[in-house]
Amino acid sequence: MKNSVRERRTAAGLSQADLGDAVGVTRQTVNAIERERYDPSLELAFELATYFDCRIEELFDPELDGEIENTD
Amino acid sequence: MNGNETTDRDWLPSVRRYRRLFWGCLVLGVLGFLGGDFLGYELVGLGVYWAGVAGMFLVWKGTDLQVFDERERELDRRASHVTLSIIGVVLIIGGPGQIAFAEVGFEFSRLMEGALWGYAAQFVVFGVVYLGIRLRS
C-alpha cells in the first residue's frame, strides 16, 4: 500500500529503528512498510498515525481509484 | 494509545534481549547435541539439547512481551500456509499414487511410506487445532 511513512520519518529526523522503537515493531518491519512490501495491521496503522499526528488516510493510500473505475 | 507510548519505548531493547536468549538457547542446545554426539557423550548432548529447547520455550512463553512483531508473525503464518499446501499436494498425489506405482512395479520404500503417514498425521493435527481455534473464536 502506498504510504508517506518514509517522508514523514525522514522529516522528523528519525531512523527506521527509532520509529520502530516508538511504535513497537522492528526496524525491518518499518523498512517493509516504507517499501510497500507489508501492509500494517489497523492497530499499527493507528499507532503510526498517532505518532505522526495525522489521519490514517493521510499516511496510507489504498490506491482504490483504478478498482472503483473498473467496477462501474 | 498514548498510554502505550512508555511501554513501546521500552519494547525493543527488551525484545532484543529475549530474542538473543531465544535463539541462544536453541543454538546452544543444537551445538550441545552435536558436540555430545561427536565426543561420544550422546546422552549428555541430548540433555543439553533438551535443556536448550526447554529454555527456548520458557523465554518464548514466559514473557508477556511479543518476542516477534506483527510482520514476523504474518511471515510465519504465510510460510506455514505454503508449507502445508506443499505437503498437501505431495500427500494428495503421493498417497493414492502408491497404488499406481505398485502397478508398474515400483514399491514405495518404508521411509517414503512413513513420510506420507507423517504428513497425513500432520493434517489430522491441523484439523483438530483448526476446529479448536474456530470453536473458541
Summed up, what is this model?
The complex is a heterodimer of chains A (72) and B (137). With 72 residues, chain A is mainly alpha-helical.
Any overview of this molecule?
The complex is a heterodimer of chains A (72) and B (137). By secondary structure, chain A is mainly α. Chain A has helices at residues 5-11, 16-23, 27-34, 42-52, 56-59, 65-71, and strands spanning 2-3, 60-61. In chain A, helix 2 packs across helix 3 (27-34). Chain A is globular and about 25 Å long. The two termini of chain A are 23 Å apart. Helix content of chain B is 85%, strand content 0%. Chain B is built from 4 helices and no strands. Chain B is flat, with a radius of gyration of 21 Å. The relative contact order of chain B is 0.07. The A-B interface holds A 17, 20-26, 28-29, 32, 38, 40-41, 43-44, 46-47, 50 and B 1-2, 4-5, 7-9, 11-12, 15, 66, 69-72, 74.
Defining traits:
heterodimer; A: 72 residues; mainly alpha; 2 strands; B: 137 residues; disordered N terminus
Percentage of residues in strands of chain A: 5-15%
Helix content of chain A: 55-70%
Largest interface: A-B, 19 and 16 residues
Helix content of chain B: over 70%
Tally the helices of chain B.
4
Query: Taking strands numbered 1, 2, ... along the chain, how are they ordered across the largest sheet of chain A?
Result: 1-2
Alpha plus pi helix count of chain A: 6
The Rg value of chain A, from CA coordinates, equals 13 Å
In the predicted model, the low-confidence regions of chain A spanning at least 5 consecutive residues are 66-72
What characterizes the major β-sheet of chain B?
none
Q: Calculate the terminal CA-CA distance of chain B, rounded to whole Å.
A: 25 Å
H/E series of chain B: HHHH
Average pLDDT taken over every residue of chain A:
87
The helix-strand sequence of chain A is EHHHHHEH
Beta-strand content estimate of chain B: under 5%
Q: What is the overall shape of chain B?
A: flat
Biggest sheet character of chain A: 2 strands, antiparallel
How far apart are the first and last residues' alpha carbons of chain A, in Å?
23 Å
Give the overall shape of chain A: globular
Count of DSSP E strands of chain A? 2
